[in-house]
Amino acid sequence: MTQATDIPGRKPDGAWAHLLHVLRENPVTMLSFGMFAFFLLQAFFGALIVPHDPLATNAANALQPPNWTHWFGTDSLGRDVFSRVVVATRLDLTISVLAVAISFVIGSVLGAIAGYWGGWIDAVLNRVLDTIMAFPLFVLAMGIVAALGNTVENIIYATALINIPFYARLVRAEVNIRREAGFALAARLSGNSHFRTLAFHIFPNALPPMMVQVSLNMGWAILNAAGLSFIGLGVRPPTPEWGIMVAEGANYIISGHWWVALFPGLWLMLAVFTFNLMGDGLRDIVDPRRRT
């Protein structure tokens, strides 16, 4: 009874201790998680803390440079650029997180099944993935959104679809390598079913490289959404979104109104930079070998 009481009490402490150890061990990881927290705060509370309505127009304040009233200046319609940049964080992060989550789940399931059982399932999956990868991925996303309509939901679906091959192939390779490993054979000999062996013994060991892929795809998903908006196939104005704001501001760079495109582009760059830096930290956090 004493051991049963102690073990549950140690699990949360062990998880937190491991997380803190990873953050302390790698300053870059700590920086990336700090930047991610910065973007999360904007996503959750940005609409409450911005000084101006991001949709309010005022022709008298059009194209004002950065000042104490408008920290990032104003755009061609007199809207506060700082407020729009901050509020746009929620939409861009939502698109990125949901698209990557969908592609992660679908790709992981398909790749795990193909890698573990192989046979005709593996052959069919590989041909489907080859077909998707044969297209330039951004062009494929453009075609999907153009066909279905440029709504936020369709942008998420298109971005998720073109990311599925990355996870499916990665998981397939990892599972295929480990399905005959000693720990997997021991799990089956202990009475575990094939499903339980795959889900609870093999798949967790495939997570570390997948976390690196997740972080890279998060940044790429934001760029994909911004790129679609930049060419007019993404989120529709006047909704605040970084890609739209960069596209609108590009028309005013030559005239000297650099701030209209600079600040949304800077936020976009920082978000992608943050996700790219998080990969190693996420890998170390979920790696079972790092917990020993």
Can you describe what's shown?
With 292 residues, the chain is mainly alpha-helical. The protein has one domain (79-290): MetI-like fold, CATH 1.10.3720.10. Helix content is 75%, strand content 0%. It has ten helices and no strands. It has helices at residues 2-25, 27-49, 81-117, 119-133, 137-148, 152-178, 182-189, 194-230, 242-250, 259-286. Helix 7 packs across helix 8 (194-230). It is elongated, with a radius of gyration of 23 Å. Mean pLDDT is 87; it is low at 1-12. Keywords: Cell membrane, Membrane, Peptide transport, Protein transport, Transmembrane, Transmembrane helix, Transport. It is a multi-pass membrane protein. InterPro entries: BP-dependent_transpt_permease, MetI-like, MetI-like_sf, OppC_N. Residues 89-279 form the ABC transmembrane type-1 domain. It is found in: Cell membrane.
Q: What can be said about this structure in brief?
A:
This protein has 292 residues and is mainly α. The protein has a single domain (79-290), classed as MetI-like fold (Orthogonal Bundle), CATH 1.10.3720.
Overall shape: it is: elongated
CATH topology (fold) name: MetI-like fold
Strand content: under 5%
| Helix vs. strand class | mainly alpha
Q: What's the main sheet like?
A: none
**Series of secondary-structure elements, N-terminal to C-terminal:** HHHHHHHHHH
In the CATH hierarchy, what is the superfamily? MetI-like
Distance between the termini: 25 Å
Number of strands: 0
InterPro entries: BP-dependent_transpt_permease (IPR050366), MetI-like (IPR000515), MetI-like_sf (IPR035906), OppC_N (IPR025966)
Organism: Marivita lacus
Subcellular location: Cell membrane
Main location: membrane
